[in-house]
Write a structure and sequence with these properties.
Chains A, B: It is a multi-pass membrane protein. Two copies of one chain form a homodimer. Chain A has about 550 residues and is mainly α. Chain A contains 23 helices and no strands. The longest helix of chain A is centred in the middle third of the chain and has 36 residues. The N terminus and C terminus of chain A are likely disordered. Chains A and B meet through helix 1, helix 2, helix 4, helix 11 and helix 13 of A and helix 1, helix 2, helix 4, helix 11 and helix 13 of B.
């Protein structure tokens, strides 16, 4: 009882006790976040670094300093809490990704993204599970059953969409960004579904009925989550359009959008759906309708406030993972068998590489088969980047591993402790080493990525500065500047491939039924151009 | 142990567990916040209501519904947590108040504000303490000692600055707003200092040395807190000016400002200073320097994002107090002696009224003596409003009462339970009844408050919409539109009274030394007017 009590207290202390220790750790955390921002800014010109790596390294250094000052007793100010991560840090990141995503690019590649995110994750999970079954016994890890192996598969099938946002640039490589990031969002959801399914199904008696149930469960989860996100987004657009808050208070509009987005995530969690998918689609709908119904200042505010929240949450996560990595308690078991630990980490890294290769190349081939226009196909070089950029494992893997292999943040069994430290190793290694090499790899394989970038804006200027105050600044340039527009062949293909026909009917439907009710660009007074002309030009 | 354990768990559950109950309560909370925003918006035209009362009433109604559905077992989804309040909800409110305050108005009345906030609170605390010593024994409350009585004085001397923000309008009654709100900020700090001093000093042996120590402690705390806030604000201005983040990312600028503000609060808590004072002055300095160093979009974003955070935190607090008020456990003791409880609440309310009257009128008289210009004096009608508008007791009183009279959120002694329920009663009654009557009272006593309002902006248009995108929109109108400007007598007084001489030298100093280093209006490229001309016109 006392142990559990102190475990709970230590776990929650940074969140809500007035004891002086938690004030110290909050101070340290905020100061470190500030350091990450300033140092990340100073290192921005460096081609090898990105902000995730900066935050990770600062976190690791702080961990070392704390470890030394406390006499090797404790390096962590707080134990990694999956709830802090899933309830507070992840929603703003994913919502902002949906809010700022280039919708045309995303929906144009929707089928490919779904293929990668759903089938790809299944393939990856299967290969990793089979691999660990094969190798772990040889290494000397014997205490796991089939459920544990499948859980390991699900844990390491979860791409880190947060890190992907950092290494790929939406303006420089829009196709790759939308593919890898879109896949990451679907993949996060798939991994969480898989993981929960593995935890709840009786896996010693796999039969076709369970497999069917599992597939049905996935489709239910996917469609229900998407629907919930879309409905919440539409509701926010409707309320703001009807009540016209802007006349009275910008602050209320911003608060309403923020709270509705968060509500969509929490409602998904309430109904055991995928909050990540829900909040992502809520972000897309809000940027398509709600954002155009609010005042000028609300638009500037929401755009930057959501981006800032997401940025801070991302930095926080990496800092946190870095600081938590040195937790001495977990490494105590490992120090007795360092060989095993290194072997486990290496096997897992190799399986992550193999598992991702096993679906990126075949599924890209499949996806290319469906595309009639050669310009729309994914080239082999792009496939390599897709494979590489999705190799990073991050906080989702950490959170799932903690959920599976610890009780109340403490690790008691040797094999469990090794799994936790191996997860940390894989996360650190993949983020730092793979993340480090992604920018140079893109430069190597796509030497002139700028031919796919926006024409209007300077690529050196970051997204948020270019046209922050233009009413159409949010995605019109991006929507119009898809890589191959202007070339006759692709312009023709815009109307010949099935996806664009869907797009055409969607536009018709949107203009006829959705916009009059929910607003959106062209249905608000302050757009200078003709409403129909403008609205016809965008998704 | 088990009891303490479950107490801690239930207390923290909404913050960080993944169990389904906490997801349910988070959902309910976010939905209720949304309801408050929408209903508050619909009731905005109503002259009697304000958002605090709406949130309180919605909270109370929800509490009743939960009470009925759970079969009178529990009405609260979570127990009032002073840490949630002091660490997360209060800082954004006070920071935003400092950020948006009309600096000229505030500093012009600085001495009066200090007089009210420091001396006034001491007077009020003394009168309430003497009153409860006098009356409580007669009512039948016998278990308290001198320390408890003084603590009760400190608890009920804490004006609710959050509620003041809601009932007074900065544009309509700028003098009253700056006096009452400024007093509220200083008063909050004084109450917390008083309360902590009473908790730590041995009050059975009061001697001149302790009194001196106490006074010294107060002045140390006040000056150190102010200095810390000013230094943090200046540091943020310096960093942003030097690194010029705006060229790279608006999000970084906004994140930096937000985190620096929070860091100032947490650092004050770390050094046992008054976080409220620190973050208030940090807000003032940031709006004077830092805000002018950032990009256009950062300025719009910070202005509205801070206001939104503050608005949501305020609504949350009132909702929370409303929901917590019906906690059945606390009322169980009281139901055995309803007469005592009513008597205690009435005595406290009467003492609050008397304690405030005892310093507002004498100190206003003193303050008027120092003013040579009759237009600057506080009229008797204004004194009545100052007295009335500061009567509300809010979350600070609740938090202090919980700190004093409960252990881990549970009340075991009868007298302690009665104190908690009486605090709730006083808070609810003062907020609802006094808050309700403030707007009509102002209309009654100052029938034409608009002659003191801004000329440029429509008084019906809320603050955030009028000039949201003008570069000087933040406080230049307010600074120039002090009530009596334009009248020759007061224009003359601008240069004759000592306060204005201080202001004149400060402006000189600011232009010569501060602005070149820390930026500010006139020292950034995008101001159209001549820098010296513009900077000479404002504080």
């Amino acid at each position: 009882m006392a142990a559990a009590f102190s475990a709970v207290v230590s776990r929650l202390q940074v969140l809500s006790t007035s004891d002086h220790g938690s004030v110290v750790s909050l101070n340290l955390f905020v100061a470190l976040l500030l350091a990450c921002i300033v140092i990340g800014h100073l290192l921005e010109e460096n081609r090898w670094m990105n902000e995730s790596i900066t935050a990770l390294v600062i976190g690791l250094c702080t961990g070392i300093v704390i470890l030394l000052t406390t006499g090797m007793k404790s390096s962590h100010l707080l134990v990694f809490s999956e709830d802090l991560f899933f309830i507070y840090l992840l929603p703003p990141i994913i919502f902002n990704a949906g809010f700022q995503v280039k919708k045309k690019q995303f929906f144009r590649n929707f089928m490919t993204i779904m293929l990668f995110g759903a089938i790809g994750t299944l393939v990856s999970c299967t290969i990793i599970s089979l691999g660990v079954i094969q190798f772990f016994k040889k290494i000397g890890i014997n205490s796991f059953d089939i459920g544990d192996y499948l859980a390991i598969g699900a844990i390491f099938a979860a791409t880190d969409s947060v890190c992907t946002l950092q290494v790929l640039n939406q303006d420089e490589t829009p196709l790759l960004y939308s593919l890898v990031f879109g896949e990451g969002v679907v993949n996060d959801a798939t991994s969480v579904v898989l993981f929960n399914a593995i935890q709840s199904f009786d896996l010693n008696h796999i039969n076709p009925r369970i497999a069917l149930q599992f597939t049905g469960n996935f489709f239910y989860l996917f469609s229900a989550s998407t629907l919930l996100g879309v409905l919440t987004g539409l509701l926010s657009a409707f309320i703001i359009k009807k009540l016209y808050f802007g006349r009275h208070s910008t602050d209320r509009e911003v608060a309403l959008m923020m709270l509705m987005a968060y509500l969509s995530y929490m409602m998904a969690e309430l109904f055991y759906l995928s909050g990540i998918l829900t909040v992502f689609f809520c972000g897309i709908v809000m940027s398509h309708y709600t954002w155009h119904n609010v005042t000028e200042s609300s638009r500037v505010t929401t755009k930057h406030a959501f981006a800032t929240l997401s940025f801070v949450a991302e930095t926080f996560i990496f800092l946190y993972v870095g600081m938590d990595a040195l937790d001495i308690e977990k490494w105590r078991f490992v120090s007795n068998s360092p060989g095993t630990s290194v072997a486990v980490s290496s096997v897992l890294l190799a399986l992550v590489l193999a598992g991702r290769a096993a679906f990126v190349f075949p599924l890209s081939f499949l996806s290319n088969l469906a595309k009639k226009n050669p310009n729309e196909r994914i080239s082999f070089r792009q496939q390599v980047i897709i494979w590489w950029a999705g190799l990073m494992r991050g906080a989702v893997s950490m959170a799932l591993a903690y959920n599976k292999f610890t009780s109340s943040g403490h690790t008691h069994l040797r094999d469990n402790a090794i799994m936790i430290t191996s997860t940390i190793t894989v996360v650190l290694f993949s983020t730092v080493v793979f993340g480090f090499l992604t920018k140079p790899l893109i430069r190597l394989l796509l030497p002139h990525p700028k031919h796919t970038s926006m024409v209007f804006s300077d690529p050196n200027a970051p997204k948020s500065v270019t046209f922050p105050l233009l009413e159409g600044g949010q995605d019109s340039e991006g929507d119009l500047m898809v890589p191959d527009i202007g070339r006759p062949s692709s312009l023709r293909s815009l109307w010949t491939t099935p996806a664009h026909t869907v797009h055409y009917y969607w536009r018709k439907f949107d203009d006829a039924f959705m916009r009059p009710v929910f607003g959106g660009r062209g249905f608000v007074p302050f757009v200078p151009g003709s409403p129909t002309e403008r609205s016809a030009r965008q998704l």
